[in-house]
């Protein structure tokens, strides 16, 4: 196997690519395997291999997207194009360099007199560029390719990287180059699901991979005679498969699915982080079991060592980036960006990495219980968590939760969390164990307002008042409105009536859906017109609409100076806070700079029945 030619592997891949049907494709893979392993028959060979190392070296080329043992190449099409340009010393202004850089651009790819390529298909463009530049034969073996790819990782400095890449590509034929590029970009597109390949490899391979997230370990496990996965457990230092949430559009079903009661938690828009603490060491793993210690470890280690009382433990949670200036969490894709530009692992003073912990999988404290606690019900795990984490640090927090049993509890939580600008709600069965690598709607359900599209009302509302900071940023948004009191007209008004007192129906408060920049624009535009709301002398048009103190805004505005917002909302419900109605989970869909204050919706539009929900 060691010396099996890489070219043979590539010609099998070419055949797999062109063949239809999973079975047929797998037969081709098997024929290659048999030849590489020099095995006359695979029937009696455990894990279809002669040695786990051999299996691993082929599988990691066949399924590069699963190969967590190789460090990231840190390259996309553009980076790879630049490497080819520099290795083949293409003049940057030449046609070939241009077409590699602008591989998606049809005007470049379809120039007459040139080798045609499919615009948008990087590999087709690369093939056209390399056609006359590569050798016709090659002698690279599979193990040599693996070794070179191991060396070609993101940590290398530019020149070293170029040198290794040079060695690979100049020794390869065009076809081999294309497959090397596919491996680097993790875009094999063989028409074979990885699940099919793993099941073909060994009956327990897929389960093993889901648990360990390591092709190498999977090959080792499957090589053991009689290997069969019977139990799932958590091992310190090895990423465990995270539990996943099922989406559920029908709120009415949740109390039946979780009849023993549930916990309601905000859904954060961050990145999943499984943190393993072993004494003074910490290791971080992503949702897909990639090691992210180099990203988050330096930012979180001190805080974790300060706040976590257990010697060894495995915690589950969401990592977020807090923007001190904006007093808000950043969108999740910003985390990696800011970490990547952080100097000497120190973030800009304006940002803070925060770990919101919601579960514990392992704790080595009490010798009377086994360290893995995944089989305990959630309510017990939450208690264990409270016992080992002291969340006094701004970077380490325990996720707040509310208890619930009814649909109303879920709606209320949803309303509160959306108002506090969270993404949605996660409903968790308090009596269920932690399900490693599984999605089960009796265990964990995620709800986001977007799931309820068929119930959503689309309303144009007018800003009637403003609230200064609520929820997470309560103490820090002083002086700046972040939530708005919204209302609609009782009925359409005639032009001649626009100057007289108009009746307004207040329907709630909105604080999400707009971007930070849009909020700033609103704040700026409305700033000159805010008037403090005096409860003893409320403005005439609002005094009958605000029935309870918690609905009273900090400021109000004359309607003629205000702005119309288009909002989505889940449903209209009776309200004791406002004058009769309130909308649930309102979110701003659009700021209607183009609409005038009297062009907003009327009560009639609000109460018009919407389409009944589908009975799923
Ligand atoms: P999504 O794209 O909706 O975040 P996903 O496919 O990444 O979903 P799911 O398991 O379907 O993952 O949804 C749950 C995800 O939500 C978790 O992976 C986690 O990253 C995130 N999350 C945010 N807040 C919580 C919370 N309180 N409890 C559990 N997961 C949470």
From TrEMBL:
GO molecular function, one term: metal ion binding
Reaction it catalyzes: ATP + (deoxyribonucleotide)n-3'-hydroxyl + 5'-phospho-(deoxyribonucleotide)m = (deoxyribonucleotide)n+m + AMP + diphosphate
ATP-dependent DNA ligase family profile domain residues: 346-490
Alphabetically ordered keywords of this record: ATP-binding, DNA damage, DNA recombination, DNA repair, Ligase, Magnesium, Metal-binding, Nucleotide-binding, Nucleus, Repeat
Gene Ontology CC terms: DNA ligase IV complex
Entry EC no(s): 6.5.1.1
Compartmental location: Nucleus
One example of a Gene Ontology biological process annotation: double-strand break repair via nonhomologous end joining
Signal sequence annotation: none
Needed cofactors: Mg(2+)
Keyword check for Iron: no
Highest taxon of the lineage: Eukaryota
Protein family per UniProt: Belongs to the ATP-dependent DNA ligase family.
Name of the featured protein: DNA ligase 4
Organism: Galdieria sulphuraria (Red alga)
């Amino acid at each position: 196997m060691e010396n099996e030619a890489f070219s043979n592997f590539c010609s099998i891949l070419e055949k797999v690519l062109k063949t239809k049907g999973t079975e047929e494709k797998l037969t081709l893979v098997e024929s290659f395997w048999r030849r590489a392993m020099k095995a006359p028959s695979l029937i009696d060979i455990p894990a279809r291999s002669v040695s786990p190392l051999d299996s691993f070296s082929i599988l990691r080329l066949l399924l590069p997207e699963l190969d967590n043992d190789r460090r990231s190449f840190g390259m996309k099409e553009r980076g790879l194009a630049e490497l080819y340009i520099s290795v083949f010393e293409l003049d940057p202004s030449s046609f070939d360099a241009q077409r590699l850089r602008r591989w998606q651009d049809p005007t470049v790819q379809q120039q007459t007199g040139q080798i045609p390529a499919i615009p948008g298909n990087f590999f087709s463009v690369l093939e056209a560029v390399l056609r006359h530049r590569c050798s016709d034969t090659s002698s690279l073996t599979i193990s040599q390719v693996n070794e070179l790819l191991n060396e070609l990782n993101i940590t290398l400095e530019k020149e070293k990287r170029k040198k290794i890449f040079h060695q690979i590509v100049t020794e390869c034929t065009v076809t081999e180059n294309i497959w090397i590029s596919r491996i680097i970009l993790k875009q094999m597109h063989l028409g074979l699901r990885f699940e099919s390949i793993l099941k073909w490899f060994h009956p327990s391979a897929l389960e093993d991979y889901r648990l360990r997230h390591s092709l190498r370990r999977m090959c080792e496990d499957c090589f053991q005679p009689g290997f069969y996965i019977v139990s799932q457990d958590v091992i310190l230092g090895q990423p465990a498969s995270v539990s996943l949430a099922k989406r559920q559009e029908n709120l009415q079903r949740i109390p039946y699915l979780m009849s023993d009661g549930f916990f309601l938690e905000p859904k954060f828009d961050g990145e999943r982080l499984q943190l393993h603490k072993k004494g003074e060491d910490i290791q971080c793993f992503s949702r897909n079991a990639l090691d992210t210690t180099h990203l988050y470890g330096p930012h979180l280690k001190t805080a974790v060592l300060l706040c976590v009382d257990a010697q060894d433990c495995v915690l589950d949670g969401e990592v977020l980036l807090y923007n001190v200036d904006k007093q808000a969490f950043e969108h999740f894709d910003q985390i990696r960006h800011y970490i990547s530009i952080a100097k000497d692992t120190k973030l800009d003073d304006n940002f803070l990495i925060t770990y919101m912990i919601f579960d514990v999988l392992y704790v080595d404290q009490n010798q009377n219980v086994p360290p893995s606690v995944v089989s305990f019900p959630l309510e017990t795990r939450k208690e264990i968590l409270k016992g080992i984490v002291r969340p006094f640090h701004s970077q380490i927090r325990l996720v707040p939760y509310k208890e619930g049993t009814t649909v109303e509890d879920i709606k209320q939580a949803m309303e509160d969390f959306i108002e506090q600008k969270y993404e949605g709600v996660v409903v968790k069965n308090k009596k269920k164990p932690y399900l490693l690598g599984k999605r089960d709607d009796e265990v964990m359900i995620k709800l986001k307002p977007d799931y309820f599209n068929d119930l959503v009302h689309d309303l144009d509302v007018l800003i009637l008042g403003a609230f200064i900071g609520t929820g997470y940023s309560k103490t820090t948004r002083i002086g700046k409105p972040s939530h708005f009191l919204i209302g609609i007209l009782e009925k359409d008004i005639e032009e001649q009536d626009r100057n007289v007192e108009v009746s307004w129906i207040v329907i709630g408060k909105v604080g999400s859906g707009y971007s930070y920049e849009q909020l700033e624009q609103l704040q700026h535009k409305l700033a000159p017109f805010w008037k403090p709301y005096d409860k003893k002398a409320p403005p005439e048009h609002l005094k009958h609409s605000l029935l309870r103190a918690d609905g009273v805004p900090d400021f109000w505005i004359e309607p003629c100076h205000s702005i119309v917002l288009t909002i989505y909302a889940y449903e209209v419900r009776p309200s004791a806070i406002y004058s009769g109605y309130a909308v649930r989970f309102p979110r701003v869909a659009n700021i209607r700079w183009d609409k005038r204050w009297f062009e907003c919706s009327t009560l009639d539009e609000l109460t018009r029945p919407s389409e009944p929900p589908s009975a799923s």
